[in-house]
Amino acid sequence: MAARVPAAELNQHRSSPFAASHCRRPRDAAPHAPLRVASRTPRRTDESNRIICRAAEVQGAGGGARGRRESLRRGAVSARLPVPDHIPRPPYVGADAIPDVCPDRQVHDGESIMRMLDACELAARVLQYAGTLVKPAVTTDEIDRAVHQMIVDAGAYPSPLGYGGFPKSVCTSVNECTCHGIPDSRELLDGDIINIDVTVYLNGYHGDTSRTYLCGDVDEPTKQLVKVTEECMMRGISACRHGTSFKEIGQRMSEHASKYGYGIDPFVGHGIGRIFHCEPIIWSTYDYEPGFMVAGQTFTMEPTLSMGSTQCVLWDDGWTAVAVDGSLSAQFEHTVLVTRDGVEILTGCP
């Protein structure tokens, strides 16, 4: 689940050319909005623009398997699911306000690394199971119920549930939904793509992972978007090791995305451990994040790529961020551990 960085904190970094929240929302929207910042993606070349135009042409003008794709519409949101009383809750549960991003950078010892690994392995198993449910006519609410049950059956708490008032146990972002989609009664359609973002809280630690899945017969331009997004994540992960600048992550992701002309949606990764969202902020674009990686740090890597605009509008639920031009987005996420020799992916499939 992408972090929300307070706009005021971002604006304090005067050396950065990037403004705060790039999401527009209706006047009656909920007060807590996911933060986006102006895109840091390098200017696209003429060739990149041709790639984007061709992808949009195939996707929107009947060239794909689905023909013209309908705009995403919200469905009915069911009641919040219960969690057994014996399962420990994260400290933010019960408060409507979104917690501030903690400025501390968590560095783990051997015992806490093992607890992180347990939480991350569970998150990976849950996500793997959720992916098997992605089929036409299945609702995102059904996916949420299945994810919720698997998490609580393992004695863990679904971290998104109650985070700043988020009403569900998993984020499900379909097609042009860039981030933080709320599961509802809408049925998945043949040709959709869906990002499922799973975070669990187990024995006092969070494990966080997501993946974009193909639903039924998906057209080739969309398959390429999904493939390149995963490649960007892996390139960012490959930059990690003790002593490396955090800037290297965004540089590697940006360079790869720009080869295909994709925009990088500026939601961010984050430190994670006992605290859900903390420093460091992990940008997927060229960035100004200070400092260097330290062995024992854990954080998420979660690039989101778009076929078109990286600006969004926010639905009045205060969470669902949707591309302003209706273009498709894909996202992948792993929680990683920095080591002396490199990096370990904690949310790799067990």
TrEMBL record:
A divalent metal cation 1 binds at residues 197, 208, 333. CDD domains: MetAP1. GO terms for molecular function: initiator methionyl aminopeptidase activity; metal ion binding; metalloaminopeptidase activity. Binds 2 divalent metal cations per subunit. Has a high-affinity and a low affinity metal-binding site. The true nature of the physiological cofactor is under debate. The enzyme is active with cobalt, zinc, manganese or divalent iron ions. Most likely, methionine aminopeptidases function as mononuclear Fe(2+)-metalloproteases under physiological conditions, and the catalytically relevant metal-binding site has been assigned to the histidine-containing high-affinity site. Residues 1-49 are annotated as: Disordered. It comes from the Eukaryota. The keyword Translocase does not apply. Belongs to the peptidase M24A family. Methionine aminopeptidase type 1 subfamily. Cotranslationally removes the N-terminal methionine from nascent proteins. The N-terminal methionine is often cleaved when the second residue in the primary sequence is small and uncharged (Met-Ala-, Cys, Gly, Pro, Ser, Thr, or Val). NCBIfam families: met_pdase_I (TIGR00500). This is Methionine aminopeptidase. It comes from Panicum miliaceum (Proso millet).
